[in-house]
């Protein structure tokens, strides 16, 4: 299993979430010595985790990375629930199914965040060259020299350590990135959207079965806000309400809440249960959504950020985790290409990933508008059908944006460049048609001497 | 001179640069008690200041603010040098003059940064309710509670103080903003461009006269880089070279530098003087250019950022200082409207200024491309002439972007909305013309039975 390198590196991974744990597997497979430091305690020993989304949509990019460390089948085939289509719930309780990929029948998979994280930590721990440390808070780091100071959150003791390479996989509020941001010429942006999210739950039916169609990502698009639901292994759905903070704030009594839900999501109310909905809603508070872009992702040949630390995005394209997993895969390929020469691998990683991650961050932001609004519009449906037809006709040439993002590993910037090209063709085609029709009409009228030149 | 408010506020202004000093005058005029804290020593006592641009272009927005505190005439009429046009210098030593405002003959004014700052500090100091403190470094602040800790850079002693309102006018690397950025839901971005700048000098001729046309902003646009020159009171020009850092780095010998200048800026070399150019170039290093956007500009009813602290921009639209000065004017108007009620004034200021400042930051970024490249292109010149013609024809309807930004106080977002509308009209007009011509041709051919329907 282990591909020994000519010289093995001391790698410190900061963060034992999904991307950090997967990255540990990749480095271990290459024979490097990995120490993974996680701020929280070991989630495998914790009963309940709050404040993070419960399930996630896994697609091609994430799957490709999991395949590489031998975990794809376990997570996708054995555990994941395939979602073949969006199921649009109207305010009149109507249902409209929009297939993700009518041509190739590809699916995205609903997976449980906690299960996935546990599987990845177990996999990492199995490598003899990986050690996991929990309750270790990174206090400071000298990224150029690979030096770090950790605070042990149990003993309150500080300890210093060093590594050849520091990998920040410490999430949207990354400490490693915060240190990077202070460097000269560092580009950085953090954007909070004016909408928050709250997770609710539709439990399984009494017989343990799903209360709605199982193989769908359910969406209640309502223009200014929306609700979605993804299926879980146990027959329940994790439901997420996305709305402006002021909408959340205005629902300050059970009465207002239920009136709002009965009007906006009438078919969901009996499934959520009025009492349970009220209890869940008022025992939680809406959480913010942040989008992070930065450049570069590395410092010299000694530090790197990956995953949400490098490109946290709003969740509306379902690509946050997938992009993070793809980071691991691309980094691994670069280690291969440049024979673990960090002075080449790290700049090449920034080169390969910065622009692409900015593109997917922007797409995710844009898709919020599409999900909560455009899917209600005729023009969107017509365009979707046109795309599907052209994709069926020209499967290698006309890949719709959604398909290239979810079901291919085409770099994100090429996906959007393709889309721009498609838009141009359609626009020009339309102008051309109109001009021809107009000219033919003029020609006919003039030929019949109805108009004269 | 002093308009007494019903209750006067304790205002702490952080930063005694252009915007901080002007803001002190505005607050003093309203009868508030102002303490201004500047990190550096008093520039009025210093011989030479390095690292900041030497002259600046003052236009309508800045003038309007200076007028309000009675300084417009002194700075514009007595001191400023009017620049009526861009003077484009070709590689073949050709000169092309492009008037800024052929219709109304408006000018922008070249003013000396240091002189301007001294005038503003003197003006602020004249108010009995203003006190200036120099060598005071803001170490930390509790923005909600108006508490601040300063380090005296002479005595190395720390002192604590408080105010009803903290105003951060502490520039692109603002400490006040850095503290704001850590607050929840704070949006922030810092972008460095890949180009740096270096200031050089064309001295006055032996007779004290200007070596080039005086009333111009001189531009040597060269695609990937450019050089500009603004006139100074003493007959000299401050010349600024903008180029990719790698271009600066490649000019690492006197030979290479002179070859480069002789090829790219042949008419400027004798004016710069080969020896002086070489000396200036190698005793300086290129400085970075940063663009800062953030939102909001205030914290509750106790803190605010203005000027570069709130919206540092690249210098290519000549609006950095003007926008900062306009901040002071708009804030003053809001104090009037909301009768100094900080809980209303501060949110209203963010509302009025955030979007507008993002627009001008983006315009400034875009204008770098225009200045160094597009002005060389035929399409740009044609569009400029079309704009001028339509502006002359419809002076109230068709205000070109450059004119509305420089010579009006139309909010920036309306300037760009206008521009988008103009682009749409031109595009549609062009399509319409082409379609009509095509149809007429078809009609003629068909009427003559050359083609048949």
What would a concise description of this structure say?
The structure is a homodimer of 453-residue chains. Chain A is an alpha/beta fold and 453 residues long. Chain A has helices spanning 18-29, 60-68, 72-79, 113-126, 175-181, 245-250, 254-264, 269-272, 274-283, 308-311, 320-337, 342-372, 378-393, 401-407, 412-447, and strands at residues 10-14, 33-37, 55-58, 81-83, 85-89, 95-99, 108-112, 130-133, 136-142, 147-152, 158-162, 165-168, 187-202, 216-221, 226-231, 237-244, 287-295, 298-299, 303-305.
Rounded to the nearest angstrom, the radius of gyration of chain A is 25 Å
Which two chains share the most extensive interface? A-B, 28 and 28 residues
* Number of DSSP-assigned strands of chain A: 19
Strand content of chain A: 15-25%
Largest sheet of chain A: 7 strands, mixed
Strand order, biggest sheet of chain A? Answer: 6-5-14-15-16-13-17
In terms of structural class, how would the helical and strand content of chain A be classed? alpha/beta
Catalytic activity (chains A, B): L-kynurenine + NADPH + O2 + H(+) = 3-hydroxy-L-kynurenine + NADP(+) + H2O
Transmembrane segments (chains A, B): 429-447
Membrane topology (chains A, B): Multi-pass membrane protein
EC number (chains A, B): 1.14.13.9
Main traits of this protein?
43% helix; 453 residues; 7-stranded mixed beta sheet; homodimer
